[in-house]
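User: Here's a structure from my thesis project, written as structure tokens. My advisor, Dr. K., wants to see whether a designed sequence matches the one we expressed. Can you design one independently, without my sequence as a hint?
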């Protein structure tokens, strides 16, 4: 089973933490028989402007506020984690799909080829980039796509640095939407056919099209950047039909937090109207049990899901090793 990319890898983490523009969230999972259980979850709002994710500039502008929020959240987990998996905003990275007609057999050659292709689109010197990739879909002509994520090395270090100041070691780093999709990939509950995932955060919306377990489309739109959501969905579906030989989605899922408490529900209804098919809210309770005390508020579900996906993914990696 293929899983999406990450920048750093180490032994399985004790908890997952997401550093977002509006809040810091954390969760720890365990098992109850054969079931995965979210044992603890907490989040703490951030003051406006403390964390402003971007691909090309400074991401953390109020280090003290982020560190304090991180320490507060971790203290609410009950036990202090030694290692964490770190989830960062999608807009801190650039995700690309690169097709190779022939894939080099040597890892070093493949690394160089990926960097060469990413150099064309990088808004900063590729020598300053952290780049990671994973095999994607096979193409009809015998080639293969790769899913590539690129971020400035300094930006990744910013996120790692606030964790270190809070006494935490980030052993694995991934973006939020990849962590969300990994809920399904790592849990072995991959929808058949083509499926669409819309992930909304306070500062961006990401749309991912999956074909089985492979990413075939990824687009991220920062809030306030260009087309409204309805146009973004229309452009995506047109591209899917015209360029990706799309025959329709077996499932359509929407989740996250949005900017307000109603954004995700409004988006869900809009997707149903546009696509003419039922649209499901992303529900992490289908993949992991949540204690009643955590509640089932949509905002909690939107924050828990990427954390569960990250932790399920790291557990699967260890079991497969």
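Assistant: Designed independently from the structure alone:
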């Amino acid at each position: 089973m293929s899983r999406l990319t990450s920048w750093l890898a180490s032994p399985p983490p004790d908890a997952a933490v997401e550093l977002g523009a509006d809040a810091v969230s954390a969760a720890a999972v365990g098992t109850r028989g054969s079931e995965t259980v979210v044992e603890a979850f907490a989040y703490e709002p951030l003051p406006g402007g403390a964390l402003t994710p971007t691909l090309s500039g400074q991401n953390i502008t109020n280090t003290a506020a982020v560190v304090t929020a991180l320490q507060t959240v971790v203290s609410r987990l009950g036990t202090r984690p030694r290692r964490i998996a770190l989830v960062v905003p999608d807009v801190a990275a650039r995700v690309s799909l690169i097709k190779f007609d022939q894939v080099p057999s040597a890892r070093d050659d493949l690394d160089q080829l990926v960097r060469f292709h990413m150099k064309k689109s990088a808004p900063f010197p590729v020598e300053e980039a952290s780049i990671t990739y994973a095999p994607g879909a096979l193409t009809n002509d015998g080639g293969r796509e790769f899913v590539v994520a690129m971020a400035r090395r300094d930006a990744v270090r910013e996120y790692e640095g606030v964790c270190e100041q809070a006494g935490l070691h980030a052993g694995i780093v991934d973006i939020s939407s990849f962590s969300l999709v990994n809920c399904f990939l790592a849990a072995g509950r991959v929808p058949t056919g083509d499926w669409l995932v819309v992930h909304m955060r306070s500062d961006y919306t990401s749309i991912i099209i999956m074909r089985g377990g492979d990413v075939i489309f990824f687009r991220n739109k920062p809030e306030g950047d260009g087309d409204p959501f309805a146009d973004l969905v229309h452009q995506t579906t047109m591209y899917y039909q015209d360029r990706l030989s799309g025959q329709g989605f077996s499932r359509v899922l929407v989740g996250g937090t949005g900017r307000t408490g109603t954004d995700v529900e409004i988006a869900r209804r809009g997707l149903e109207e546009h696509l003419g098919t039922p649209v499901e809210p992303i529900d992490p309770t289908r993949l992991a049990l949540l204690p009643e005390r955590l509640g089932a508020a949509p905002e909690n579900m939107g924050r828990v899901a990427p954390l569960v996906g990250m932790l399920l993914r790291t557990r699967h990696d260890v079991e497969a090793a």
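When you compare it with your expressed construct, this may help: The two ends are 12 Å apart (CA to CA).
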